[in-house]
Fold this sequence. Notes:
By secondary structure, the chain is an alpha+beta fold. It has a single domain, classed as Roll (Nuclear Transport Factor 2, Chain: A), CATH 3.10.450. The chain is 28% helix and 37% strand. The protein contains 4 helices and 6 strands; from the N terminus they run ααββαββββα. β5 (89-98) and β6 form a beta hairpin. It is globular, with a radius of gyration of 17 Å.
Amino acid sequence: MTFSVVNRLIDAINAHDLDALAETFADGFASEWPAHPNRSFDGSEHVRKNWGMIFAQFPGIHITVTGSVESDDEFWGEFHYLRPGASDMRGVILIKVLDDKIVQSRFYMEEVEAGTVPHPMPGVSSGQNRSDSAHG
């Protein structure tokens, strides 16, 4: 059941159907951004307001889930937000569902970097691939 709610959400976003999108959220919905606490908010009306602005700013936005795990009332998904004219966003969203509505989400989303930037860990090259770093 959790995956079907998430599928309805993604379908509504990709169709830019604000009413269908808002229908997937419970009135007492809580959005948490652990790495960016100032982005956190409560309430389904805030979801509608935010997505109305997103649709206006990114009329070509399209979302896919590139990997996921579902257990009981939670969906853990790796999301890719394609935003034509802006940086893509990628990351993980943990979604909790109760009574066929989304009641909570925890976002770990970031903009995809353009170009090469220094790796934040000393001694690790940004251009190093996994097999190189795994073998020393």
